[in-house]
Amino acid sequence: MNDNTRAEAIALCESRAGLYHLIATLYFQPLSQEQIDALAASDIADAASEEGSPFAIACADLSKALRLRHSGTKETLAADYTGAFYGIRTVSGRTAQPFQSLFEANALGLMGEARSEVYRTLKAHALRVPAGADLPEDHLSFICEYLAFLCDETAATLREQRDEDAASLIRDQRDFFETHVASWFPTFHAIANQIVETRFYRGVLNLTEAFIAEEAAMLDDLERLLS
Questions:
Q1: What is the share, in percent, of the chain residues with pLDDT greater than 70?
Q2: CA–CA distances in Å: residue 75 to residues 82, 126, 187
Q3: CA triplet 36, 43, 6: central angle to 5 degrees?
Q4: Averaged pLDDT, 123-128
């Protein structure tokens, strides 16, 4: 692998890690005022200017919602978050709590097999959910944080020119992504999109959907760069 190809692969890993971290933050808990202000000051508006792509449409929702923020925005977003993602509101008897166990095939409720699988994976890497977080490990936020961890690990191995290890990590990413994100997010999205009330959280859902739709292709690009 030449230097330019290596740099391209590292940049792609870092970009994906950044998106996974962002998604994890958006779903973890209601945003603080500092997080809202930081997001408003980020490059979301630039992404929204790229017309036509699903990313642009989602970022436009986020950008416009934040551009119109006021003294009550934090409370409005918190109310929408808790109503939707804490399971207070329902549609056709279904909640939009972002736990894989609620949306996997033959789901039996919280703490299902998906939670056990993610727990074992995190434990194998000496990773834990944040202290004080009373949430099962198969929460979308923790799943995305683990994928961000794998992206960062892949970038580190590429810098050290351990290309076989990087290729193995990419395979791990694909397997985990397909099993613990792509398998259930569309169903969750369809329900959550009927429950959220703010333009901001519609944007969050659509941003996640756009990223997930592109992730398989980005993993293909990484494998091509390493081949």
A1: 93
A2: 10, 36, 28
A3: 125
A4: 92
C-alpha dihedral sign at 145, 148, 154, 158: negative
What does R_g of the chain's alpha carbons equal in angstroms?
A: 18
Nearest to 181 by CA among 89, 118, 95: 118
CATH class, 3-226 region: mainly alpha
> Which pTM does this prediction carry?
0.93
Q: Are 137 and 98 in contact (CB under 8 A)?
A: no
What are the tens digits of pLDDT across the range 179-188?
999 999 999 9
Q: How far apart are CA 105 and CA 139, in angstroms?
A: 16
Break the chain into its structural domains and give their ranges. 3-226
Choose among 139, 150, 145, 157: nearest CA to 172: 150
